[in-house]
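haha ok so turns out i had the wrong file open the whole time. this is the CORRECT one, sorry everyone. sequence first:
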Amino acid sequence: MHAADKGFFSRLASFNDSFASNLPATLERMAAVAAGLDPRAPAAAANELQAMLHTVAGSAATFGYRGLGHHARALEQRLRVLMTFDAVAASDWASWTSELGQFVEAGRRDPRGFN
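then structure:
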């Protein structure tokens, strides 16, 4: 193996370790932001959640968390749809935040074995 390859794989392993070590805090932050989401004025919380979900969805598969990434992408896409409407029923927000809660709980239990 070339030195450049060793350096690449070393950096990739470091990024993988960083993703894994930051994931619990990311999941906790998602839960906290979702808990504070006000259906009457959801923009700030929804934007933060969208950014976090986008990051997790984009990185997860690279680091061996394929199922987690797939679910993060699905939640992100549903959130984007909700954000496009001027008015969304509180029950629709509640349904979405419930799904996010299930995602967070499953991620806490077993982020690599996420189904």
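The first helix runs from residue 3 to 35.
again sry for the mixup
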